[in-house]
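Supplementary notes for students who missed Thursday's class. We covered one full example, reproduced here. Read the sequence, then the structure, then the short commentary at the end.
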Amino acid sequence: MQVLGRDKVCAVIAAYDPRNMQRQLQHALRRTRTIELRLDWLARDRHIDDFLRTLKKRKDPRVTLIATCRRRAAGGRYKGTVSQQLFHLAEALRAGCTWYDLEIETARRCPSELIAALLGEGRQLRSAHSFHGTPRHLVRVARELRQGGAEAIKLAAYCPSLAHARKLIRFADRQRNLVAIPMSEVALPVRVIGLRASNGFAYAPVENATAPGQTSLDELKNLYRADLIDSQTKVYGVIGDPIAHSLSPVMQNAGFQARRINAIYLPFLVHDLADFLDSIEALGIRGFSVTLPHKVRLLKHLDGCDPLAERIGAINTVVVRGRQKLYGCNTDYVGILRTLEKRMPLQGSRVLIVGAGGAARAAAFALAQAGSAVCVHARQPKRARALARAIGGEPIARSRLGGEFFDAIINATPVGMYPAVENSPLEERELNCRLVFDTIYRPRSTRLLQLAARRRIETVSGLEMFVAQGTAQWEIWTGERAPVDAMRRAVLSRLACQEKDRSAPSR
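Structure (token representation):
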């Protein structure tokens, strides 16, 4: 919101001691000129005083600082009295803050004359936080917030669905100087999409999240390129439950950045498929990837489907055409074929697929079409038999695996995926093959691949399939040739960072 500062993204500084507050502040200043100082996160009153004394020495008129000292009654961390809270806010204004955030709970306890006397030299942002749901009477809450001379108001509410988040954003669009913050992981994409509006505004923590569903400052700036989001920005995404683990946003946004396309790709946590489908048009979504558990469920909601995807019985890619018409296809099979055909002749090869879900079906149909003899093993024999019958393959019981030989074994189950990295769908003695291909890409070296390597069997990480199917999606949506190398580098870089973080000793 322009009235709060020059930038659409407000960095949030929140730490338990003055030294780390200063360190976060220096980091934030390299990325934005609008910063909220969460003084209530500092553990003691003297820590607040120490931090503000340091802040006063380095005033910068180009930076808009917002002081917040939210009390526990309003969802903050400050344990002191209202008088102490107001004192700290007054000191923050003298130290260089332009704005102060005054929550509605404190405003109700203080005469406006007292607030004006203590804090009159600052600009007031009066806020209300609803952590248990969206208020039923938004107009009433906004009216109360505007009492007492606030220059801008903020309404943050927990939104359990996209519908609730859209309602809050629509309300803000009709109001003057209102910052609307939908909270929750479900509402996260709406917070980013809201930056397309001329008055869009988002809070982004440097390190510590201060509300549900926040996106870090670095991610908002680097991954989603928040500074470039405008009314012309196209929206794509991935739907799933869970979805936070997905590296699709890293890969797809790297493609948009490499080709200088004004588009963003966002993760949608979708508990309720109907809620997402109802939001497609309102949020301007042009296309989306589909992952578990919606690959099969979404089929009945499509207006059209690629014939092969229909035979597979699962989709992973949707194109949104005029008037919210959904057309589905499956690029998992492209990823399977591109990954394997570089390493082995598919025609006449004997391949075992472990699993019978969406990824397994894509692999089975792709390989059968390429001329492979496909065998299927799954925990539920009935599903294995059904898939084998659909492709003219052979179901294989677990008891037979030790005595069978395959040119390749493909794991198309989530067994071994982070965080359960110690699990494997098969034992070492059951790996009688030339090649083991795990469709999992987190971690890159799964327990299954480690067992295969121990037997000197060639291994293939799911990363290759992930990039191949993802670049195929990107090309379907954009109509351009994907920058494959840039997209792969982005995924590899993020995976390396995650694996480094996980291997670092805990403190």
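Commentary. The longest strand covers residues 123-130. The mean pLDDT is 94. If anything here is unclear, bring it to office hours.
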